[in-house]
């Protein structure tokens, strides 16, 4: 009878471990799904950032070509002589 109770408690322990494993796998599956969703959102955000950076680059180039460039200031040595 002692052997049977030992087998029963071992079976119960095994069943508890399998239940815990199943619970852990369910949580892992949920975490992987959430990670996949976050990566999809990250891809959308990165595409938007790429478009925004391209647009700002185009604006900068357009403004830089329209801006009148001021002549470079003369050397300080030359200014002193003309004063």
Give the key terms.
mainly alpha, single chain, Hsk3, 87% helix
First-residue to last-residue Cα separation: 116 Å
How many strand units?
Answer: 0
Main pleated-sheet profile? none
Unreliable residue stretches: none
Gyration radius (Cα, Å) is: 36 Å
List the total number of helices.
2
Order of helices and strands: HH
Strand fraction: under 5%
Mean pLDDT: 86
Molecular shape: rod-shaped
Specify the helix fraction band. Answer: over 70%
Oligomerization state: single chain
Report the structural category: mainly alpha
Task: Itemize the secondary structure elements and their pairings.
Elements: H1 2-66, H2 76-82
Structural overview:
With 83 residues, the chain is an all-alpha fold. The protein has a domain at 10-63. It is built from 2 helices and no strands. The chain has helices at 2-66, 76-82. The longest helix is centred in the middle third of the chain and has 65 residues, at 2-66. The protein is rod-shaped and about 105 Å long. The model has no long low-confidence stretch (mean pLDDT 86).
Summarize the structure.
The protein has 83 residues and is mostly helical.
